[in-house]
Amino acid sequence: MIIDRDGNITLITQEHPSVKTLVNNIEQSYDKFKSYHLIVNLSSLQKNHLEDIVEFLRLSNTHRRDQKSFVIVSDKVDLDEMPDEIVVVPTLHEAYDIIEMEDIERDLGF
């Protein structure tokens, strides 16, 4: 797990193929991340399945409830299969755009 900070955004990049281990590591260290918007980059993994993405659902719901963005980056999933409760985009640039749009929505009270 590689962690980078960019202002109020934390970027977590998975370097090993175990998504369950990544989710557990993030949950164990959640106090370090809870005040930042989170981007989880899974682009380095060979293949991601719907089951892998769903592993993040509880973490995403917790984070969003605290008015913070949670975005997963993967270009190896079928975006049409992803549940509406979790945000998955194919590029890092789009992840940053989503966070910016969600910040604007929160400022406007949506």
Gross CATH architecture: 2-Layer Sandwich
Fraction of residues in H or I helices: 40-55%
Find the count of extended strands (DSSP E, 2+ residues).
5
* Radius of gyration, taken over Cα atoms and rounded to an integer in Å: 13 Å
CA-based shape: globular
Structural class: alpha/beta
Query: What is the makeup of the main sheet?
Result: 5 strands, mixed
CATH class: Alpha Beta
Provide the CATH topology: Transcription Regulator spoIIAA
The CATH H-level superfamily is STAS domain
- The succession of helices and strands, N to C, reads EEHHEHHEEH
Domain module count: 1
Low-pLDDT segments: none
Describe the structure in your own words.
It comes from Winogradskyella pelagia. This is Ribonuclease Z. By secondary structure, the protein is α/β, with parallel strands linked by helices. The chain has a single domain, classed as 2-Layer Sandwich (Transcription Regulator spoIIAA). The chain is built from five helices and five strands, in the order E-E-H-H-E-H-H-E-E-H. The longest helix is centred in the last third of the chain and has 17 residues, at 92-108. It is globular, with a radius of gyration of 13 Å. 25% of the residues are buried. The mean pLDDT is 89.
In short:
This is Ribonuclease Z. This protein is an alpha/beta fold and 110 residues long.
Question: Main traits of this protein?
Answer:
5 strands; five-stranded mixed sheet; Ribonuclease Z; alpha/beta; globular; single chain; Transcription Regulator spoIIAA; 110 residues
